[in-house]
UniProtKB/TrEMBL annotation:
<keyword id="KW-0813">Transport</keyword>
<dbReference type="GO" id="GO:0006893">
    <property type="term" value="P:Golgi to plasma membrane transport"/>
</dbReference>
<dbReference type="GO" id="GO:0005886">
    <property type="term" value="C:plasma membrane"/>
</dbReference>
<dbReference type="GO" id="GO:0090522">
    <property type="term" value="P:vesicle tethering involved in exocytosis"/>
</dbReference>
<dbReference type="GO" id="GO:0000145">
    <property type="term" value="C:exocyst"/>
</dbReference>
<keyword id="KW-0268">Exocytosis</keyword>
<feature type="domain" description="Exocyst complex component EXOC6/Sec15 N-terminal">
    <location>
        <begin position="76"/>
        <end position="245"/>
    </location>
</feature>
<dbReference type="Pfam" id="PF20651">
    <property type="entry name" value="EXOC6_Sec15_N"/>
</dbReference>
<dbReference type="InterPro" id="IPR042044">
    <property type="entry name" value="EXOC6PINT-1/Sec15/Tip20_C_dom2"/>
</dbReference>
<comment type="function">
    <text>Component of the exocyst complex involved in the docking of exocytic vesicles with fusion sites on the plasma membrane.</text>
</comment>
<protein>
    <recommendedName>
        <fullName>Exocyst complex component</fullName>
    </recommendedName>
</protein>
<dbReference type="InterPro" id="IPR046361">
    <property type="entry name" value="EXOC6/Sec15_C"/>
</dbReference>
<feature type="domain" description="Exocyst complex subunit EXOC6/Sec15 C-terminal">
    <location>
        <begin position="441"/>
        <end position="789"/>
    </location>
</feature>
<dbReference type="InterPro" id="IPR048359">
    <property type="entry name" value="EXOC6_Sec15_N"/>
</dbReference>
<dbReference type="Pfam" id="PF04091">
    <property type="entry name" value="Sec15_C"/>
</dbReference>
<dbReference type="InterPro" id="IPR042045">
    <property type="entry name" value="EXOC6/Sec15_C_dom1"/>
</dbReference>
<comment type="similarity">
    <text>Belongs to the SEC15 family.</text>
</comment>
């Protein structure tokens, strides 16, 4: 209270100043006029009531007023000050006694206050000392409570974050174990469920930023796995195709066995399963059941496409790209790569046509490729479509056909062409079992069959040539019954007269006849091998066999016989034997017909059945041989004629025939004795041709332009030679001529020589032109030319 009173009391100087100001204001109020009093009052009230910061404008208004107005205002202000001082003084005087009493009481209280102050200080000290421990304990409690609250908050937050961390840890484990599809599902859960709950944490933001990168890594890894898969199936296509073709071969063999048991002539359409048992290899490189094999081999399982190729990368990659919403990109990439691989698979090696292994590897790759594609088609929904596989197959089919056409044309080994045919059949059956259309492959087999027939014809042409070159062209000697049966078992020979003869004896044909017959049967067997497994009827197979056999007879064998007859070292004896051989081969054609009928069970009387052309073939060959006999016989006659050495100016003849002519007649006689085994007409024709050629040659000798003069002695000698020729003709060197038919070959010479020997010109001239003329065969020009000589 003392302090308050002290604060309310103004200092003495200020009190004096206020009193003076109040006095001055009072004096001025008395002297000023009424208008200024009101204005100055207002200004003073404004100064007293406003803030000191706003006094300036008020004071400026005083100076802006009338001149000396500020002096009056100062006076008024002094009066106001003095007035306030008086009021202050009155107030102080009024409260002075109370103030003094208050000071006195205050002095009394000061001692109590100091005592109280000491007690308060001591109490405060003791309180501070006591509260220090409490404060420490309180701070510890507060700290523990804060820690407890923080721990509860942390636990709460960790409970929110822990599933995220667990899922992320699970994601890492899935990535490490290459479970990429599950990892993508985990990422999806992280993004949609877990991370949004705690997205304000930095580690969650880092996780969220890493997830797209992880997805790209998974895409890259899965694409790398896909590339490895594509490389794997490219490497394993051989094995997959080999396995599938082996199963097809086993199933085809099984069907064939069942068909034989049920007496079914046609093959049923094969249906294959990739769970068959293994088969053993045949000599042709394909597969067949081996009944003599071990039970362990029979129970051994064939590896399927799934066993040989791990398809999980393509499944995984497909699922991954599907989850990532980029399935179309994956499908386009896969199909593009498979198209490239298809082109590589369809590209053959340059020397593929040289070995069957080259063809087998080619077909194994193709079959393996499409077996894999068929598996992908059915195991994945939409990765490849039936339209895509059909497009690939049509492209492949065109390429396969073009390749096989080109490379098969290089094959000159029929066994290799047969192997190629078998591979085509197995390939077609295998792919047909997987639903691929293979009719064009079977159509291609007809072209391959033509190529096979051509290679067979070339091979058998060499065989025939070798047989003809090694033949001795002499009848087959048979010493014992066993030898006879051996020959007749190889060739259908039946002659009752020869069978009645005692051993040893000779068969009319040479050794080449049974060899040729056997080789024709071997050719039919070889042709039949190609017809097997073509799913053709017996009628079609019969037609194929007959057509190929006709080609062998009409082209190959006929050409070999034609060339044989024209060879320089083939003489008359060989030609005669060739005619005999062709006669027996011609007779054996009916047995070849029966041989084919027994194979195909198709009767020759069936409509549209092709006939064998062996009869015409051997007839043509025999006619060619006959012509060669005539030609060579005439050539031999010409050789003897060239030895003639007539002395055209001799006076008298020697009385005996010329030596060259006697040698010629002896040659003809011995030659015609060999002709006894020839058909009668052939021997007669050859004999008549030889006599006519001899007569013509002798006539040309007389009429030779270089011969200028002939004596009658030479005419007589020439007449002796012609008489020997007539005697030869009358001796019937070849049986079957009627009367003097053979002598008529020399009638022209005889009449001409008689004309000159008798010198019967009057009769010749008188009877010229008469049908019964003695010299009807004498040409006037010929007679005149000889007369001039």
């Amino acid at each position: 209270m003392i302090v308050q009173l002290a604060a309310e009391r103004p200092p003495p100087a200020e009190a004096q100043h206020c009193a003076a100001l109040s006095l001055n204001i009072t004096i001025m109020a008395d002297s000023e006029t009424l208008e200024f009093v009101t204005e100055h009052e207002r200004i003073l009230q404004e100064i007293e009531s406003t803030d000191t910061a706003c006094v300036g404008p008020t004071l400026r208004s005083i100076y802006d007023d009338q001149p000396n107005a500020h002096k009056r205002f100062m006076e008024k202000l002094d009066a106001r000050i003095r007035n306030h001082d008086r009021e202050i003084e009155k107030m102080c005087n009024f409260h002075h006694q109370g103030f003094v009493d208050a000071i006195t009481e205050l002095l009394k209280v000061r001692a109590d206050a100091e005592k109280l102050m000491g007690q308060v200080t001591d109490t405060n000290r003791r309180l501070q000392e006591a509260g220090r421990d409490v404060r420490a304990q309180t701070e510890e409690v507060i700290r523990c409570r804060i820690q407890q609250r923080n721990m509860a908050t942390t636990v709460e937050k960790l409970q929110l974050c822990l599933p995220v961390l667990e899922m992320y840890s699970k994601l890492k484990e899935q990535l490490d174990s290459k479970r990429y599809y599950a990892a993508l599902k985990t990422m999806e859960q992280l993004e949609k469920v877990y991370i949004p709950r705690v997205s304000h944490y930095r580690f969650c933001q880092i996780m969220a930023e890493n997830l797209p990168r992880l997805r790209e890594e998974i895409k890259d890894i899965s694409m790398s796995d896909l590339k490895d898969f594509l490389e794997s199936i490219r490497k394993h296509s051989d094995k997959v195709g080999e396995t599938a073709m082996r199963q097809a071969q086993q199933h085809r063999t099984f069907n064939s066995a069942v068909a034989k048991q049920l007496h079914i002539g046609h093959y049923s359409k094969p249906v294959y399963s990739l769970s068959r048992h293994t088969n053993t290899h045949l000599s042709n490189g394909l597969w067949s059941n081996d009944d003599t094999g071990d039970d362990e081999d029979a129970d051994e399982e064939i590896l399927t496409a799934q066993d040989l190729v791990d398809f999980s990368p393509v499944y995984r990659c497909l699922h991954i790209y599907s989850v990532l919403g980029d399935r179309e990109t994956f499908e386009n990439y896969y199909r593009k790569q498979r198209k490239k691989q298809a082109r590589l698979v369809l590209q053959p090696q340059a020397n593929m046509h040289e070995t069957v292994e080259g063809y087998r590897r080619y077909f194994n790759q193709i079959v393996g490729f499409f077996v894999v594609e068929d598996h992908i088609l059915h195991a994945t929904r939409g990765l490849v479509t039936r339209a895509f596989t059909d497009e690939l197959w049509n492209m492949a089919l065109s390429k396969i056909i073009a390749v096989l056409r080109t490379h098969s044309s290089y094959c000159e080994d029929p066994d290799l062409v047969l192997e190629l045919k078998n591979l085509i059949v197995i390939c077609a059956d295998t792919l047909q079992g997987y639903g691929f259309p293979v009719s064009r492959l079977f159509d291609l087999l007809f072209e391959v069959r033509d190529q096979y027939n051509e290679t067979l014809l070339k091979k058998w042409a060499a065989v025939f040539r070798e047989i003809f070159e090694s033949d001795n062209y002499s009848p087959i000697p048979v010493e014992t019954e066993e030898e006879y049966k051996l020959v007749t078992s190889r060739f259908p020979f039946h002659d009752p007269e020869i069978e009645k003869q005692d051993f040893p004896k000779k068969l009319p044909m040479s050794q080449s006849v049974p060899q040729i017959y056997t080789q024709v049967k071997e050719f039919i067997y070889a042709s039949l091998k190609f017809s097997e497994s073509l799913h053709r009827s017996s009628t079609e197979i019969d037609d194929m066999l007959r057509k190929s056999t006709n080609l062998l007879l009409t082209r190959t064998l006929s050409s070999c016989l034609q060339n044989l007859t024209k060879k320089p070292h083939i003489g008359l004896t060989e030609l005669v034997q060739i005619i005999i051989n062709t006669t027996h081969l011609e007779q054996a054609c009916k047995y070849l017909e029966e041989f084919i009928t027994n194979i195909t069970n198709i009767s020759p009387e069936t409509v549209h059945t092709t006939r064998l052309y062996g009869l015409s073939t051997f007839k043509d060959a025999r006619h060619a041989a006959e012509g060669e006999i005539y030609t060579k016989l005439n050539q031999k006659i010409d050789e003897f004629i060239q030895l003639a050495d007539y002395e055209w100016s001799m006076a008298e003849s020697d009385g005996r025939a010329s030596g060259y002519l006697m040698d010629l007649i002896n040659f003809l006689r011995s030659t015609f004795q060999v002709f006894t085994h020839l058909p009668g007409k052939v021997a007669q024709t050859a004999c008549m041709s030889a006599c006519k050629h001899l007569s013509t040659s002798l006539m040309q000798m007389l009429l030779d332009s270089e011969l200028k003069q002939i004596s009658m002695g030479a005419i007589q000698q020439f007449n002796l030679d012609v008489m020997q020729c007539e005697l030869f003709a009358s001796s019937e060197p070849v049986p079957g001529f009627q009367g003097d038919t053979l002598q008529l070959a020399f009638i022209d010479l005889r009449q001409l020589l008689d004309l000159f020997m008798v010198w019967d010109w009057s009769t010749y001239l008188a009877d010229y032109g008469q049908p019964n003329s003695k010299y009807l065969r004498v040409n006037p020009a010929t007679a005149l030319a000889l007369l001039e000589k």
